[in-house]
Amino acid sequence: MKNRLKLASVLMLFFQGMLWSQETRTLTLQDAVGYALENKADAEKARLNIQKGDAQIAEVRANALPKITVVSNTSYNPLTQKVILPNFLNPTQTMEVSLGQKWQSSNMVQLQQVLFNQSVFMGLKAAKSTKEFYLVNAQLTEEQIIEKVADAYYQVYQAEQMLRNLEDNLEITQKTVNVIKGLYDAGLAKKLDYDRSVVALNNITASKQQLLNTVELSKNALKFMIGMPMDKGIDLPEGTFEPSVLLSEQADISERTEMKVLNKQLELLKWKKKASITDHYPSVALVANYGWLGQGPKFPFWHGKKDKVYWSDMASIGLGINIPIFNGFSTKSKVQQDEIEIEKAKADLKETKLGLDMAYKNALTQIENSRITIENQENNVKLAEKVMSDTRSNYQYGLATLNDILDAERDLADAKNNLTKSKLDYKLAEIQLLKSEGKLRNLTK
């Protein structure tokens, strides 16, 4: 009995977990964008790059801080060097003198401090600019994520709207089948007409299954885009295709993140050029040493004077000055290369500004054209609905053929789909307009 209860409990937890994993949530565009910025790998890598910038600044700053090292060398000399010296007691003779001992141990603590090194100071300023570049680039990455998520989001909504249009068309065709069946049962319609209407109904039913697959695929694409698990269910709220952008006369291109990134890249290239120039500058460093020297016939570390091992300390303080005189025009060549890279960056900046201006004008034009198209398609849908109703009535009185009904149904379906596509074009143009104005982050509010 206890085993059965345990098994029942496990099964309840299992099925409960499945229900939770399949829970459907209503996902607004703001929710989708926020989820992506929290979970998408690109956003996480951009945040890690900011931390990398902090680490780079710390690395460069370390070059200006004092460095302390400990060096220990112990050596055994099986054969010591010998020199021949005059015998001071007997000038006519010489004597052989050994240099050094069998064992020698040198243990040194060294302090190094940079007093002047222009490349170090320049590198520190460049590192700070690199951190700022990572910050701006992270913002650009987030805006690119927002743009992709918005595009994928509206693709889902379009697929769902196309499915609704087809379901409406399926309902209309079903009514047509019912009408023709009633007329056929009453002997007022041909069996051929009834069979053709059923075929049309079956074709629409088959198309519905295809659209259901399209909706599911577009939802999966959206979930991948925002980093959401595939087993999570999502629904989009009504009114997603409603216009939401206020048009402005002119966009401030200088506030575009792309421009900020390029300007920061140009700044980094200028710092690189200055760093190359610092190869001409002298450098000054303070070096201080203090250590112990042990010598004797035995291993020095645990022997003393009684074993003829003698220890002595030593110290030195020095000032190192390095003055470059000539390096074969290497520095000049590096500076020339840096200047070329700066000019190339300026050309990219100019080209990008022109492209952003064009994108803004194109977005305005697309929005205006889409607005006009939406108005025309809305009127066209109303007209197609009226034609459908009139054609069905005329068929009942023998004033229209089945072909007329099927054509009217097809025209109505096309009109609704064209309206849906026009709304999608409008929303995609909204995204491009917000992007050209540097206001993509408005989609997160």
Automatic annotation (TrEMBL):
Residues 360-432 form a coiled coil. The keyword Hydrolase does not apply. It is found in: Cell outer membrane. GO terms for cellular component: cell outer membrane; efflux pump complex. Keywords: Cell outer membrane, Coiled coil, Membrane, Transmembrane, Transmembrane beta strand, Transport. The keyword Membrane applies. It comes from the Bacteria. Gene3D superfamilies: Outer membrane efflux proteins (OEP) (1.20.1600.10). Pfam families: OEP (PF02321). One of its GO terms (molecular function) is efflux transmembrane transporter activity. Belongs to the outer membrane factor (OMF) (TC 1.B.17) family. PANTHER family: OUTER MEMBRANE PROTEIN TOLC. This is Outer membrane protein TolC. It comes from Riemerella columbipharyngis.
